[in-house]
Amino acid sequence: MKIAIIGTVGIPAKYGGFETLAENLVDQLGGKYDFTIYCSSPNYRGERQETYLGARLRYLPFHANGKSSIIYDVISIVHAMFFADVLLILGVSGAFMIPVIKWFTNKKIITNIDGLEWKRDKWGDIAKKYLKMQEKIAVRFSNVTVVDNEGIENHVFHEYAKPSTLIAYGADHVFYKELSKSTLEELCLPKNFAFKVCRIEPENNIHIILEAFGKTTVNLVVVGNWNNSEYGKELREIYVNKENLYLLDPIYDPNKLNELRANCFLYVHGHSAGGTNPSLVEAMYLGLPIVAFDVDYNRYTTNNEALYFKTGEDLLKLLKNDLAYAKNLDTVALKMKQTAKKRYTWKFISESYENLWSA
User: Fold this and answer.
1) Is residue 305 domain-resident?
2) Which of 218, 238, 256, 357 lies at a C-alpha separation of 20 to 30 Å from 288?
């Protein structure tokens, strides 16, 4: 069976959740299926491979995100319709092509609609309306709609009166690595710290987190793309001189990232939009105590067993009270690990996708 995976930056994964999903599907199932992955050539300059883990890689000269994701997805879909038995489409940017494919072929189309992208603050009104329409088209015309969180599953049912299939993300690709003295010295970090890694965007509530930690002496390390937006630049300018705040640029080396993340005493998750966030399930699999922004997506992901905050005052109260009790954090950490081992392994996720295209 020939399967095309559409909508990612590409593999080897070095960008985000969909890329990690594609790589692990190929890793788990590559011996049983003929995979083709569409990749963004601007992201793989000087390191393009024809195959990876047995999957065939096809490069397009467009970025896979932002406005160019529309043409990127459309070309990928049109190309795939001529050879693939199953089109696994990750995201809805080019969903208007799905009914076209359905009219002219009998290809099986499975669409992961992502995390209600049209709700994100980073998009303008026109983009939000476009993405909402694409979501509607994807749900209506795909053979199967995949969602990664119960909150989105409920949205699809109530908004479109359609069933969907809940499949989250795996996290067992992350690993513990002892925190070295050389890493601390290289990055000028203290030994004990809370940690967060994310895109620096308003919907991730970085401003709330920095303000709360800034009123304490609790060390916080935040890894993100500070220079990619005015929001990030302004926050860095405001907080760069706070002695307990360490604002680091993106770290793409998984060894170094895991070294920092796995050794924090608290993982802070501020995402308020989207569904099941890969960085959150990874932190859970590492057995980290987690304080998360209080929205239903995060409560579903953490099985309602993490610590939660809705405002800066909520977070400040947690930092000044609950964090004084190590036993409480240990209990949260244990529950996070137990949930992750049950729900978020790539073997389980891959088998769930395999069941869809084999049905």
Assistant:
1) yes
2) 238
